Amino acid sequence: MKNFLIVKLSAIGDVIHALPTAYALKEKYPDCHITWVAEPAAAEILKMVPLIDELIIFHKKEFRSLRGFLRNFPSLKRQLKRRRYDVSLDLQGLFKSAAITWVAGAKEKIGTCFMREGSEKISRPIVGANAHNHVIEQYLDVARFLGCRPEKIVFPIEVPEREQDIARRLLAQCGMNAANPYVALVIGASAPNKRWTSEGYAKLSDWLYEQKLIPVMVGGGPVEEQWAREIESLTEVPPVNVVGRTTLPQLAAVLQGAELTVCGDTGPGHLSLALGTKTVMLLGPTNIQRTGPYTQMENAVTISRDCRYCWKRVCPKGLDKECMEDITTEMVTTKIKEIL
């Protein structure tokens, strides 16, 4: 039996992109044991993946000081040394993942084509045929190096029935029946210029009601709760608001039950895609060819500026109008009509 160690720590979207690699390993080596090291936020996703045999939580915050490192390193080392790994896959490609990989001491250490911060000194970068393609295929190239021949992209997530029940009750508390068709609106993003406008979401919400579809805002955190209130103030009839009221598994249940999701390039959006929900992804500064909705590329809505896909968190040109403002409500509703 082969023992594999996957090191992919954060963020949620990145961890989801790496899941097909774990599936490919299990497909090729059904009896293998897969251990995954992740940070707490992303770990909630991995707990819904049955083929992950062991999950090691890396609490990065506890290692930021010398005192914290000395206190917490022995425990992490013991966890990593419990098993002798045949191969470690560093899919993060940073100093912190390289350190974890080095401590684990697998017989063979490999990583992706974009290793940085010295991680390429610890793990061998695998530069496959997809080095300039979507990140999902870049990760799969690492599995292909190990003899895997994935024929399809599979995200092996299973949302627990208990979490589905809680999500249905939560929607009921908000005055709606989860059996009625609804559209999930992921209103936030990790960077301001990756987020669509509040005005856009408000107009879309009113249009969805006209189409007999219930708009449901999802997300988490104080900033997104503020955005949700702003969107509500701009609508004729406020959308259902569960922002900040769901755990990640409950959010997954809401997304799984939706007719469709509208989102930016953000973790919950990629979760929606992984769950098989039709997903309209709105893209500005991020490159569709690398992190776009890989299994539903036809459902992406992109801007037409020459400077699109710049990868900047803030517009480097200092323009008065953010690029995501170029996406109109009509562009989104047209795409929704095509899908539904």
TrEMBL record:
It comes from the Bacteria. Transmembrane segments: none annotated. One of its GO terms (molecular function) is ADP-heptose-lipopolysaccharide heptosyltransferase activity. The keyword Glycosyltransferase applies. One of its GO terms (cellular component) is cytosol. Keywords: Glycosyltransferase, Transferase. One of its GO terms (biological process) is lipopolysaccharide core region biosynthetic process. Gene3D superfamilies: Glycogen Phosphorylase B. This is Putative glycosyl transferase family 9 protein. It comes from Selenomonas ruminantium subsp. lactilytica (strain NBRC 103574 / TAM6421).
